[in-house]
Amino acid sequence: MDTETDPEKDPGPAPGNGEGQRVLDPEHDAAALKALTHPLRIRLLGMLRQDGPATASELAVRAGESSASTSYHLRVLAKHGFVADAEHRDGRERRWKPVHAVTSWSNRAMEASAGTREYVCVTRRAQLDHLAASLGRHEADLAEGRLGPEWVEPSGITDLLPRLTPESLSELWDVLGDKVRELTARDADDERAVQVVLLAAGLPLAPRAADGGEAPGGGG
Question: Percent of the chain, pLDDT > 70?
């Protein structure tokens, strides 16, 4: 799945599928952003990044869609530089791979128009859907023995509610990104390493007024 966020806070590409990150500029990449607002395209790109190259038919089975539909949406993604041809196992069906491991942007720049703000909202919702699907897959992998018992203790989800300034929240993203890059590099050649879904959110909330509404002048 995509790790879309401010590029300065990006935790770095996950090992495996795609190289580096593509930073989208809402002024120059409007067509590419519009192409990615389609929920199925977001899912297809995420599946290629998570599970590696695949054909339209293989992705159709995973997504519960027709191969005609996935083939069309993959061609749209290719037109805007998100996916490309992968090495074919045979000459019969086209295989696709992600071009980049991460798509990122400046949140401040994305506030420029209603369309780009909508894109950020759509992709954040898609990330939550990805988390729900990943949780189900994780639980099944443990129950069916595809993951060893050593993964039980470190796995988990947290919903902390710290009180932070904007500067502290930015610093937290930087620290997280640096640590992810450090640990990913350290474990690159360790055969015990597996892909981990790490979804972090920093969502400031305005204070509630006594009547349950938002207090005037609250932070955002």
Answer: 85
